[in-house]
Design brief:
About 30% of the residues are buried. This protein has helices at about 25-40, 130-145, 155-160, and strands at about 50, 60-65, 80-100, 100-120, 125-130, 160-165. It contains 3 helices and 6 strands. Strands 1, 2, 3, 4, 5 and 6 form a 6-stranded antiparallel β-sheet that branches. It has about 170 residues and is an alpha+beta fold. The protein starts with about 25 loop residues before the first helix and ends in a 5-residue tail after the last strand. It has a single domain, classed as Peptide Deformylase, CATH 3.90.45.10. A hairpin with a 2-residue loop joins strand 3 (about 80-100) and strand 4. It is globular, with a radius of gyration of 15 Å.
Length: about 170
Amino acid sequence: MAVRPVLRLPAPQLKVVTEPVAQLNQPAVQEIAGDLVDTMRAYDHCVGLAAPQIGVGLRVFAMDVSGHPKTRSCHGLVVLFNPEVLLADESKVGREGCMSVPDLTGNVTRPSRVVVRGITSQGGMRVIEADALEARALLHELDHLNGLLFLDRVTSPHSDLFQRKRYQ
């Protein structure tokens, strides 16, 4: 597996709706899953990464909110193929950032409780019930698979977008 470059806006691949993964047992598909995990873990403060962010037009993402201070539910490392939202409720505003939009953060309204279903790397079905940060991260990654960025969900670019703080 490898750490891949993360695409940044205005890369056109970030705005394309991805294709479902037809055959999980292909080595190239498994390699993409591994590369997502390796790339996500290579960046400090990254809790999720979707295939379009590494230039791949397939419906797969990796996520891990372990250790984040805003985490309530935590399912550890999650890699899901062809994920779908089964339930979403209790919307709240929260601050989001994105590896593909590294200089900005924004206030985004999202459901704070979700149930998401997808296929694992081993081919089994997995259902995840999540809240708080984990729910937000799941929905953020699902948006990437649908050609959306958090910028598309910001109500007002004038009042809801902020320069990212840089720590040294």
